Structures are given as C-alpha cells and as structure tokens.
Model the fold of this input.
Amino acid sequence: MTGLEKELTEADRQLLSAMQQGFAPVLRPFQEIAERLGVTEEKVIADLRRLKEKGIIRRLGAIIDSRKIGYTGTLCAMQVPAERIPEVAGVINAFPEITHNYVREHEYNIWFTILAPSTARIDKILKRIQEQTGITNMLNLSATRIFKIRVNFDLEGER
Amino acid sequence: MTELEQRLIMELGDNFPIDSRPFAVIGQRLGMTEEEVIARVKEFIDRGVIRRLSVALRQQHVGFTANAMVMWQVPAERLAEIGRTLASFPEVTHCYERETLPDWPYNLYTMVHRPRREECLAIAERLSRAVGVGEYKVLFSKQELKRSNPQYFSEERE
Done:
C-alpha cells in the first residue's frame, strides 16, 4: 500500500468504479456519471480533477487499441546482474516506446514492453539496448493473439 | 489515418478535458464542432480504434500492489479454447498468446492484479484447475522501473 489508498473515500471508490465501467460520447458525459451515482456534475468533475492531480487516476479519456492504428507490441525479458539493474533500466527506459518495465522474480529478472509503429523499429531498439548494455541474453516474446485487455480493479468488494 | 484524426486521437487519449462539455473543448482546440467530435468518437468506437472512454488507475495507489504475470505452457491444439477460458475470469486483466523460443516453452500469458500475493497465487491455482493445465509459472513484480502512457504519432526518431 502506498498510503494514498487509505485516503479514498467511499464516494471516491464508487466514482472510480463507475468510471472504470466507462462513460459515453454524449454532450455531458460527467453529468451522466453523476446521475448514475446520485451526485452533482460539479462534484464528479471536482473529484475527478483531484484524483487525477493526486495520481490515483493515471489517465482519463479514450483507451486506444494500438493495433488498430498500426502499432505493434512485444514483451521482452533480460537477464541482468542485480547490481547493474539501475544502469540497464536507464538505457531501456530512455526509449519512449518502452511503456512498462518491471523487475520480476525469475532468472530473467527485467521484463519490459515495447509499443512501436513497426517490428523493424522494435528490432532496432532491442539491438541498441544490447549494444549499449553488452547484455545479449534476451527474450523477444511477440504477441500473436490477444484474448483480453480489460483492466478493472474491484474497489468496492471486500477489503 | 489523416493528420486531423491523429490529433483527435491524441486529444481524446492524452488530453481529455475534465469539463462539463469535454467534446466542445476538444472541438475548440481542433477547429471542429462539438457534434463533429462526438460523431468521430462514435465512429472510432464502432471501428474498434477506441475501446472505451474510461480511466486507468495507478494500481499501487488503489491498493492493488501484487502484480503477477502467470505464464502457461499449453498444448497448441487447445490454445484458443484455454485462452478464451482464462480471459473469461474477471481477475485476469490481460491474456495474450506469445511466440515460443527454443528454450522458452510458454505460449500463453495472463496478468493478475490483486491487493495481496496470496490472492494472486490462489487465483493462478484456480485458473490452472479450470483449464486442466499444471505447467505454469507465477512471476511477481518486485519493482516498477517504468510505467508510461503510449506515445502515438510522435516523429520516429532517426
């Protein structure tokens, strides 16, 4: 826990749950959310601004299907000596096409995703990372089929 | 995709106004009417370019601190069926088939986010029983090194 979670009120949780369900492309979408929750539009707007400001909402708006606009993604794993993780992460993270990067508990300990306009660009980024770090022990696990992408955290269940 | 469509996608994805009439604000930025913006958004939703209008939460900040990637080694002939079954669990946020490599047999990947590690492990076990596959590995994240929004249509560097 980061502490921020404890600051969420019951009303915040209901609002975030409703927003995770999605809003419609209508003239006043936050008015519709407000009606669903039985509060005013002004409150919804003020609360959403506060939650975004605090970083609890990472982004708000259209969730784009990157593949439909010509982007391609992959998941890569690397074996990095523990003491070199900060330096190697610096090299990887410098590419704006890297969207996620995590240390995981496995002999392949660095796992990152790349989203780019072409596989050629992905190959180029991987080549650069190998050149700059000298680490070639790497997996490139291209996605061949997507069964699901639907992030929805149950904020109102048992806690 | 036209330049206007690209700009519209960026405004809708990265700069969505938290205002009473958000589509009017976007229209002002791009020289379109509110009605035109809404019509384009509906069209993008129909085409699947926009999955939804929604929020993405910072998982650690809402208490979902255990982040498990569960990798599965499933028989190729059962992959589609198993992929669909795993995807049907609400606890599974992502489910992808990925290429295998000579020393890397895992072909299906699911993400599970929960408040506690034990919950992720229990869910993985439940998934395993549901599809009758025992060959799987749970990789927890120990540290987040980067999490950023995709940057579309920026100039390709060099």
